[in-house]
DNA sequence: TTTTGCAAGTGTAAAAACTACATTAATAAA
DNA sequence: TTTATTAATGTAGTTTTTACACTTGCAAAA
């Protein structure tokens, strides 16, 4: 019966996290070599089970923290996966989340202990269960997000060059962008502070470093816009 | 432990459906007067519990069918709600879905038996639990969907006038649209068949009836576009 | 100290998209 | 046949977007 709580079936509820990072090589995801059955030794998203007294958002935060040591990370719920046999051991529904993290900030020791590893999104291994599908979904969502909210604060080091920002957008959208048009579009958002300092790694002339203007960035996060790149 | 299935907590998993319909009065949702405790007699979304051998999509389809008699309806998963006490009886996570239906097609008797009723989205009663939040989310998603996929096939009668289509978009986006610009933008999608037939209800001149070109409509459903109305 | 090489930085003109808007057309009812 | 009512239709002005190439500043090498 629809109105009967007592006769309804209970299920395991899991959370799986697609953790995005960005470095000079491009956009990456953090994967883990699974150390228990089933599928022991295969690559997988990091995940865990929801606890009785925990909301999904907090489960995702807890799991991320367990594997990376990070707090206060941007996460967003994506989708609930419920195929009957998606997990062969027991009926498990999994809710996916994605996180954006600065690849330099996480606890390296911790991720080594868990046999976790960063993989380029263009070059990631096959994953267990329906995790490939989850990653595809997350990439699509990340692309969409990029067109309505600013991005980068979570993924770039504090100081970065225009080129780095450009390359981040190119990696996410997986297409080349015109440098001049990109710069003027980004500038029109008014979320960047141009520093006097230059980064001299990349060229002899050196390129100006920028930081995000946190206040304006967060204001823009609240109010969606349309950004055609 | 993260890797232990046996010690993980199981929970009830519910599905709640935001069922959208459209008629001459505007955009509506189908609500039900709850006939069991808790919150008996209050208005609620249509919902039910996931069964052990059922995927979420099918649970949503089953629930929609139970209350409306309809099959083959466009539905889309939205979001998982997991606040600890969202359902006071027992820990229940609910996954929301939305459906688009032609308001004239459902089984009227059936919805009467269930004390279900259509409410204008601008004028709906307060709902139990977190169902108001679910409805808000669904409306936002419907608006977004409208900007990247064609809409109307699911919500309008087979033959409809341009004005009806315009009013549907206005109701969804909750803003006035310029008639001429709207028509040329819609026509540029090339998803409509203009019939020779006219609808004479609305005026002395009569207005042409259209149908959706199902093939092209479905082709557009697969490949997103950007439609600025 | 001069020259060389390298990526950074910068502006504009043409094309496309979008907006605002008012008159004529077709028909039924009086 | 006149009147009343809503449907149908096109364009000019503005804004946005796109495509594109040369100069600058610096460090390293000659």
Automatic annotation (TrEMBL), chains A, B:
Gene3D superfamilies for the chain: Nucleoside Triphosphate Pyrophosphohydrolase (3.90.79.10), Winged helix-like DNA-binding domain superfamily/Winged helix DNA-binding domain (1.10.10.10)
PROSITE patterns: NUDIX
Pfam families: NUDIX, WHD_NrtR
Stored InterPro entries: NUDIX_hydrolase-like_dom_sf, NUDIX_hydrolase_dom, WH-like_DNA-bd_sf, WH_DNA-bd_sf, WHD_NrtR
Protein's name according to its UniProt entry: DNA mismatch repair protein MutT
CDD domains attached to this UniProt entry: NUDIX_NadM_like (cd18873)
Coiled-coil residue windows: none
Database matches in PANTHER family: ADP-RIBOSE PYROPHOSPHATASE (PTHR43736), SLR1690 PROTEIN (PTHR43736:SF4)
Taxonomy of the source species: Bacteria, Pseudomonadati, Bacteroidota, Flavobacteriia, Flavobacteriales
Organism: Flavobacterium frigidimaris
Residue span(s) of domain Nudix hydrolase: 10-143
């Amino acid at each position: 019966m629809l109105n009967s709580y007592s006769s309804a079936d209970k299920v395991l509820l899991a959370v799986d996290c697609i953790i995005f990072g960005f470095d000079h090589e491009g956009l990456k995801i953090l994967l883990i070599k699974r150390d228990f059955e089933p599928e022991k030794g295969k690559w997988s998203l990091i995940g865990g089970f929801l606890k009785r007294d925990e909301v999904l958002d907090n489960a995702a935060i807890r799991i991320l923290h367990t594997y990376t040591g990070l707090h206060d990370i941007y996460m967003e719920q994506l989708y609930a996966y419920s195929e009957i046999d998606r997990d062969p051991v027991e009926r498990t529904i999994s809710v996916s989340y994605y996180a954006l993290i600065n690849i330099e900030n996480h606890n390296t020791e911790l991720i080594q202990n868990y046999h976790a590893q960063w993989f380029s999104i263009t070059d990631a291994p096959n994953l267990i269960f329906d995790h490939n599908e989850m990653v595809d979904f997350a990439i699509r969502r990340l692309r969409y997000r990029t067109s309505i909210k600013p991005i980068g604060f979570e993924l770039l080091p504090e100081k970065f060059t225009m080129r780095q920002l450009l390359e981040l957008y190119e990696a996410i959208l997986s297409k080349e962008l015109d440098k001049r048009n990109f710069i003027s579009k980004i500038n029109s958002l008014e979320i960047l502070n141009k520093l006097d300092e230059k980064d001299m790694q990349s060229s002899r002339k050196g390129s100006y470093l920028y930081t995000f203007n946190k206040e304006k960035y967060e204001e823009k996060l609240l109010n969606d816009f349309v950004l055609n790149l």
